[in-house]
Structure formats: structure tokens, C-alpha cells
Write a structure and sequence with these properties.
One of its GO terms (biological process) is membrane lipid metabolic process. The protein has 258 residues and is mainly alpha-helical. The chain is 55% helix and 0% strand. It is built from eleven helices and no strands. α4 packs across α7 and α6 packs antiparallel against α7. The mean pLDDT is 90. It binds zinc ion (2 copies). The site of one zinc ion has 6 residues, from α8 and α9. One zinc ion (ZN) binds next to α8 and α9.
């Protein structure tokens, strides 16, 4: 058997799961694969060699400290309803759709809230990078992560009684969704924007022009922006865009959201 055939075997899958290697491997694929895709037709010039080491350190901080702590705090405050059997017996695709719609709707409003003056400080760190590429969106403070998790945990009830791989698929999807939104690609995907957020759509959200401060808040479905008046049509935005918060805040304050 060739090595690449072994990659598709049950043994390989079990080995990855048993050794907690799924997400490290996924990260390696993201690092090589997504960066390669960005190099084909980038939207803007990014000095990867300058930013990737720093962002990787932020990624480790996020992965091993921020995300677990936020999850621990959520254990105490998150609401996780017990849904009746009639809902749990609905076909899986229907429940997965309900999960994404409900979680994303909640995410939209929490994002909206974080762009209001009293709570902006806990989200500011996400908007610090002055460049956009797949790993630039990894910054989330503990309070941000705690409240963003809430609608996802709530909606996760729809996935009760799902096959074992569901939590894995959702975790991978979340990582890739964040990469996707921030990716440095010049593709337009206009047709796709009727349904979901694309890189250029989310880049406008990171723009440092005052008229874009609360533009395109959606994380997955663009319908929320259209419904609630935060939609900015990427076709009507002139390039070049520039990013960042335009102020110097010490890193510990940014990372803690204080
Ligand atoms: Zn934001
Ligand atoms: Zn972002």
C-alpha cells in the first residue's frame, strides 16, 4: 500500500483521533494549503515572513489558553436547552441547518453588541491587524470568546443524538470558516455573497474607514446584514482598503479586553 492510500484508511483516522492529532494536522494543511491559495491571486501584498510567526504565537495563545478558559467559564453561564424528542428525531441535515442559522443569528447580534462603545474593548484586539490574510482573524479575548460561544452552545442542542464525528466536523468548520473570512484573495464570489460571507465581504468589516465601523457584521449568512441595515455592498467599495484600529494599545490590555 502506498503512503497516500494509508491516509484514507480507518487505522490512520483512529491513530489521529487517539493521539489528538486531527487539529494539528488540520493546522498544517491550513498553513500550507490556504497560504498557497492566497499566493495565486492575493487581494493585497502581505509580508508573510513578517507576520506569520507573531500570528502563530497568538494562535497558540488562543488555542491553548483563551479557548479552553472561555469554554470553562461557559460551563457556568451557557444555556443549553433539552430539546423534545420530536426535534431530535428530525433528519440530521435539518438539525444541522437549524444549528447554523440559530448560532449565526446569535453571533451576529453579539458581534453587533461588541461594536457598541461599552463593549468595544473586548473585541478591539480582533481589529488590530493592519493586514488581512487567513490567520489574521485569530485574535479573540477571553470575554469575547465567552459570549461568542453562547449562541453556539445553545444551538448545539440541535445536534444531540448526532453521529460521533459531528463535533469534529463542526470544530473543523469553525476553524476553516474563520480562515475563509480573512483570506487574502482577490476573487469576487458575488453570487455566493447572496448566501454567505466571503473574504472581500468581511475585509470591509475590518476597514479603518469610519463609514465601515459597523459594516458587514455577519459571520456566516449575509442575510442578517441585509435585514438589519449593516450591509455594505463590496462592489460599491473603492480599493485600496486599509485596516487596523489606528491607535497603540499595549498587548496585555488588548488581549485581556480591558
Ligand atoms: Zn468586528
Ligand atoms: Zn474578522
Amino acid at each position: 500500500m502506498e503512503w497516500f492510500e494509508w491516509v484514507f484508511t480507518r487505522e490512520f483516522r483512529q491513530y489521529l483521533l487517539a493521539h489528538d492529532l486531527v487539529f494539528p494536522l488540520l493546522f498544517l494543511i491550513r498553513l500550507l494549503g490556504v497560504t498557497a491559495i492566497e499566493l495565486i491571486r492575493p487581494a493585497r501584498k502581505v509580508e508573510y515572513s513578517r507576520v506569520i510567526v507573531y500570528d502563530f504565537a497568538v494562535f497558540l495563545l488562543y488555542q491553548f489558553i483563551i479557548f479552553p478558559i472561555a469554554g470553562y467559564i461557559d460551563l457556568w453561564i451557557a444555556v443549553r436547552p433539552n430539546l423534545p424528542d420530536v426535534v431530535l428525531n428530525l433528519p440530521l441535515p435539518l438539525r444541522v441547518t437549524a444549528y447554523f442559522v440559530i448560532a449565526d443569528f446569535g453571533h451576529y447580534w453579539i458581534h453587533w453588541l461588541m461594536h457598541t462603545a461599552p463593549v468595544w474593548r473586548i473585541h478591539k484586539w480582533h481589529h488590530v491587524p493592519t493586514y488581512m490574510y487567513w490567520l489574521a482573524g485569530v485574535r479573540a479575548t477571553i470575554p469575547q470568546q465567552v459570549i461568542v460561544n453562547l449562541p453556539y452552545i445553545f444551538a448545539y442542542s440541535f445536534l444531540d443524538l448526532s453521529p460521533w464525528w459531528m463535533y469534529l466536523a463542526i470544530g473543523m468548520f469553525n476553524a476553516l470558516q474563520n480562515d475563509w473570512m480573512h483570506m487574502n484573495v482577490a476573487w469576487r464570489f458575488k453570487w455566493l455573497e447572496w448566501l454567505i460571507v466571503t473574504p472581500r465581504y468581511h475585509h470591509i468589516h475590518h476597514s479603518n474607514r469610519p463609514e465601515h465601523y459597523t459594516a458587514n457584521l455577519a459571520a456566516l449568512f449575509t442575510v442578517w446584514d441585509r435585514l438589519f441595515g449593516t450591509y455594505v455592498d463590496p462592489d460599491k467599495v473603492s480599493e485600496p482598503l486599509s485596516f487596523g484600529i489606528g491607535e497603540k494599545v499595549p498587548l496585555p490590555r488588548l488581549a485581556l479586553g480591558v
